[in-house]
Specification:
The chain is an alpha+beta fold. It is 42% helix and 38% strand. A 6-stranded mixed beta sheet has the order 2-1-6-5-4-3.
């Protein structure tokens, strides 16, 4: 009986360590995402996105593929020049990460809630929704 309890405890600890490591890895993916987004790093962004990713922009009713998103980087690069992006993870559970992000552009700012699905170190889905027209609630 005692040996069974030890095996169970060891298995539970290994599982907990795996979950914590996966959660930390997911947070690292999100940090890399915002760093690459700020400088419009097409290569890094492409590496972070799964080939079949779907990126939903709720406010404008658009769903982008990886190819659509990467094609829009030139336009984004102009928009993000001189900007800052602050983000914090609100929730991370089972590969679903919810982030509050302040996009602080030179002429305005906006507060967004973004939800990512991460698997295997890549973003497989993303949904972006405006929270407020400024970042005062950040």
């Amino acid at each position: 009986m005692r040996r069974s309890w030890r095996r169970f405890f060891l298995a539970a600890m290994l599982l907990a360590c795996t979950i914590v490591r996966a959660s930390a890895d997911d947070g690292a993916v999100i940090d890399r995402w915002y760093s690459a987004l700020l400088v419009a790093d097409r290569s890094e962004l492409s590496d972070l996105l799964a080939d079949d990713v779907r990126m939903k922009l709720d406010d404008i009713g658009v769903v982008q593929t990886k190819q659509d998103f990467i094609a829009s980087i030139d336009e984004w690069q102009g928009a993000v020049a001189g900007a800052a992006i602050r983000h914090r993870i609100e929730k991370s559970e089972n590969g679903q990460i919810t982030v509050l992000a302040c996009y602080d552009f030179p002429s305005n700012d906006t507060l967004m809630r973004e939800t990512f699905t991460v698997a295997g170190g890549r973003i497989t889905a993303s949904t972006q929704t405006a929270v407020a027209p400024d970042c005062s609630a950040y």
